[in-house]
Design goal:
The chain is of the alpha+beta class. It contains ten helices and four strands. It has a four-stranded antiparallel sheet with strand order 2-3-1-4. Helix 5 crosses helix 7. It is elongated. 15% of the residues are buried.
């Protein structure tokens, strides 16, 4: 079995460094062109809801509330978080949102662009909406929150959903990150260029050294003739006269 010479491999990479650099640069250019021309910018806006009872009254009345009632409210809210997260993307709510905003969009498409997440061990629900228009994304997110609050009163006859953060339009695309894309294409270019050099080296069956000649022929090299360039001294540069 032929042994792998790490020194020879590194030497091969060094000799092909120009090829490697060109391939990496080509991948960087291709990545920038691809992200600039073939990826449609999309914007994400999010609003945050909290499950909290509004029936606590004023500060003066708060001392009169039974502790067990508060604990019941907290336990109920914790159980309702997962249920609320599913209700937000229900047909009734989405259809009402599209009707209120007069949005001409497929219901399934809208649902795919809505992401509902909960913060672990809290009663917070985040509604994130992605759209090609940042203003529309924020409008949809805020309208979902408003419609959802109204529907909860109908479903459970309680008023325990409050808006913490209102969705605002974001001018930075959420699906495009040029630094990340450039780094990714640099990595891909390095992998492709290294693979290219290794395959090129494997297919190259020319004799480059005494060791190659001995390995291929199975004989011992007794002498080696220097090349013509090695025999002749290098010409000296002529000094310029002022």
């Amino acid at each position: 079995m032929e042994e792998i010479d790490l020194k020879e491999i590194l030497k091969t990479f060094w000799n092909k460094r120009f090829h490697i650099l060109v391939i990496i640069v080509l991948f960087i250019i291709a990545g920038i062109v691809f992200t600039m021309n073939f990826i449609t910018p999309k914007y994400t806006s999010s609003t945050t809801l909290i499950l909290a009872s509004v029936n606590s009254g004023s500060t003066s009345d708060a001392t009169k509330i039974d502790t067990s009632v508060i604990e019941k409210d907290i336990t109920l809210n914790a159980k309702l978080v997962s249920t609320y997260s599913e209700l937000i993307k229900s047909k009734n709510i989405l259809r009402q949102v599209m009707f209120n905003l007069n949005i001409d969009m497929d219901e399934d498409e809208l649902r795919k662009n809505i992401n509902v997440s909960t913060v672990e061990d809290t009663e917070l629900i985040e509604i994130a909406v992605t759209n090609e228009n940042s203003e529309i994304a924020s409008e949809i997110a805020n309208e979902i929150a408003n419609v959802f609050k109204d529907q909860i009163k109908v479903y459970y006859d309680i008023e325990n959903v409050q808006v913490v953060d209102i969705a605002e339009a974001d001018d930075k695309p959420s699906n495009i990150n040029h630094k990340r894309d450039v780094a990714l294409f640099i990595l891909i270019g390095m992998v492709v260029s290294c693979g290219y050099v290794l395959i090129l080296n494997m297919l190259d069956n020319t004799v480059k050294s005494i060791e190659d000649a001995e390995r291929i022929s199975g004989l011992t090299v007794l002498a080696a003739l220097p090349t013509y360039d090695e025999i002749l001294p290098k010409p000296k540069k002529k000094e310029r006269r002022n």
